[in-house]
Amino acid sequence: MENLKVTPLNEVHRTLGARMVPFGGWDMPVQYTSIIQEHLATRTAAGLFDVSHMGEIFLTGKKESLLAFLEKLTCNQVEPMHDFQVQYNAVLNEAGGLVDDITIYKFNDEKYMICSNASNYEAVYAHLLKYNTDLKITNESLNWHQIAIQGPKANEIFSKYIGQDLEGIGYYKFKLISFKGEQMIVSRTGYTGEDGFEIYSAIPTGVQIWSELLEFGKPFGLVPVGLGARDTLRLEAKYALYGHELNDTRTPVESGIGWIVKEKANPYFAYEKIISQKKNGAEYGVTGIKLTEAGVLRENYSVFDDAGNLIGQTTSGSYSPSLKEGIGLVYIKKSFIKNETIVFVEIRGAKKKSIIQTGNFIKGSVRNNK
Amino acid sequence: MTKILDGYKYTEKHEWVKLEGDSAIFGISDFAQNALGDIVFVDLPKVGKSVKKGQSFGTIESVKAAEDLYAPISGEVIEINPEIAKDPAMVNKDAFAAWMIKVKVTNASEADSLMDSSKYKDFTASL
Predict the structure, then answer these.
(1) φ, ψ (nearest 5 deg) of residue A122
(2) Which of A249, A347, B25, B49 has the most CB atoms around it within 10 Å of its CB?
(3) What is the pLDDT of residues A104-115, one digit of tens each?
């Protein structure tokens, strides 16, 4: 048995009756009661997620060198960011593949935080150090507690719990909030397609908030949610996941996140190739796919056109608890990325008729819909 | 608490078989449905197909995973439970009521080597 890392809530999850599984080197709850119940509770009320396994890397330094550094290593444009803004971005390797997809938090011109995936934050940290010259870069992942509250009632529940009106925090913005004698980072972000917050705090405070919030939110329908429903929620929202849609060989354009590729005066790795892909299109891209008959899509199923030519591969797949059908994301030849194109997915030797869905699978309460 | 009923025989892959004269019905155990979680799809063979002891006769899918279903004994499929396709979650609700296929048994003695309820209870406790 490998040595799994545990979050500070590990014992609490076990007490709640969670089924624990290894995930990216961590011992995490996959479900407390049922993936479908937890999923639907998040869509209709709210869910509470332990995301302490995520990484937090802080960068401080002079304005110009910080900006130049971040612009060089990532493909989205950091320069236009305001203080207390969060941005979805990607750290690129030398070939233009992804070291990780990240969110960047700008505190001020001289301080940023990178939130990175659990399985990647050490690689991101090493990559940043490799190119660092004069910045202070610290990996504080194990010092930070992180939970997420997500769902149409998340704002109401969390605002009432901490006794502050959080309505003013816009989508992809954050606020430093004093609570229990400490300063927490509260950001209006998430990974479910619903409104809500990701809350970064010191460990003892985070553990306390988890239990208090769960109790406080119960009458509103708040339930703890494991990684199983976290995956089905993000899939319905069409959010990419590292190791599935995203990896170290595909560029952002080839991974379905070309919208974060920007032109810059200060170019990042593989700049010419990536910008050309953005302008002219890459050979392959990522889009949504839906089974037209009963069944479930899974990762790594082959996808064919009606003439039987192999045209792609599913990168994620599951049963959609909201739609009650098989959905997925597919890495597929660009010419097939057109809404309602009919394709065929091979499942255990049989080709199942499926349909390309370029638009949303669901419309959640997430603020960018408003 | 995991339900294990008498009068059924069990495999190490957690299927059950119930012999009824010269036919038999197959399903999965309560232990298995609990381990799988929310069951959303069951892929079953067509009537007339032969199934062989120890070999896959279908697939069961939960939200998280797809697993093969292994035949506890050999036979020819004479009926499939039509309710399963309409409501796969019935396997979660009552794994013993949710029989999947009925077969005409080729060799009833194949069931002798399977576990009875008390052996299966010990087997699941050891996992």
Answers:
(1) -70, -40
(2) A347
(3) 999 999 999 999
